[in-house]
Amino acid sequence: MGSYNLNDMTSFASWTRRLKIRHLEIFSTLVATGSQSAAADTLNMTQPALSKWLRELEEDIGAPLFVRGKTLRLTALGAQFLGFCEHVLGEAENISDLMEATRQGRAGRLRIGVLHAVVSELLPTAILRFRADAPNVRIAVTEDTLVPLLDALQRRELDLVIGRVQGAVLEGIRTEELYAEQVVAVVRAAHPLRLSPRPSWVAAREFPWLVSPQGTPMRTRFEAEFVNAGVRFPEDLIESRSVVVNQALLRHSNMITLFSRNVAPYYTTSGVLTELALPMTGTLGPVGLYLAEEELTPTVASFAALVREIALGQVDQVRDHN
C-alpha cells in the first residue's frame, strides 16, 4: 500500500467541508473502543449505520483509516486523522469554555485609557481585583492626556477611559462621575514652610512653583486658590508634565506643587516629599468613567462595575479623613 498524506490530497475541499464535530467524535470513539460494535453502543448508533459512515469516509479520503481485524488498528493515515480530530475537538471545547467565560465577563480583552493626573490606587486596585476573578482577560493600559484618549475611545481602540469629567464629550461617548478630586500641596520634607503650623498662600507665593500647563484643570485650580486667598500669582513658575523631572525638582529644591489627594501618596510614601497643609477652597472637579454609548461587553461592564465599587470606597475614606 502506498503512503498517503492528508495535506497532499487534492480532493480535500469536497469531503472535509462535509465533516462535522459529530463525525470527529465518532472517529475518536472508534479509536478508543477498538471495535465498531462497541463504538456503536457508546454512541447510541446502529452498527450498520456506523459501518456505512466509516466506509464512505474512507472512500472520500481515498485510503483506509483502519486495519480491520479482531480490533481496529489505525493506519498511518488514520493516525494523522486522529491527530486532526483531537485538535479540533480540543479547540471546540476551548472555544465553548471561552464563549461562556466571555459571556460572564471572565475572558476576552480589556483596553483601559487613563489620564496620568488621575492615576491613583483606583486603577491598580481595580486591575488586581479583576484579574483575581478573571485571569484570562487580556488587559492593556494606555496613559495619555484626555483628548487622545477620548479619540481612541470613539474609534473603539479603547474600551473605557478613567479621567476628569469636563465639558462636552465626543459623539458616541457617555460619562459618569465617580468622585470629586481634592487637591493638596506637596513639598520636600525639609521645606521651610514645613516649620509653620499654618502655612499661608502669602508665604507660599515667595517660593518657586511647579505647575501644569495653561488650560489644564490643575493649573486652573492653582490660579483659583491664589485668587481666593487674595494673593497675586507667584512669578517664579516652571511648567512641566514630566513625572520624573517633577519629582527630582521637588526633591532638590524648595519648589511647591499641587497634586490630587489620590496621586500625592505616590510621591510622598518614601518620606522625601510630603504634603504641605495649605488651605484649599475647591476641588479639581469630578473624576469619572468615559464609556461607549452602545451596550458594553460583559468584560467591560464587569470591570466598570468594579471601578464604581472601589471609587465609592475611596469617597468614604476621604469623608472619614475629613
From TrEMBL:
Residues 19-75 form the HTH lysR-type domain. This is Transcriptional regulator. Keywords: DNA-binding, Transcription, Transcription regulation. The lineage of its organism: Bacteria, Pseudomonadati, Pseudomonadota, Alphaproteobacteria, Rhodobacterales. Pfam families: HTH_1, LysR_substrate. Belongs to the LysR transcriptional regulatory family. GO terms for molecular function: DNA binding; DNA-binding transcription factor activity. One of its GO terms (cellular component) is cytosol. It comes from the Bacteria. InterPro entries: HTH-type_LysR_regulators, LysR_HTH_N, LysR_subst-bd, WH-like_DNA-bd_sf, WH_DNA-bd_sf.
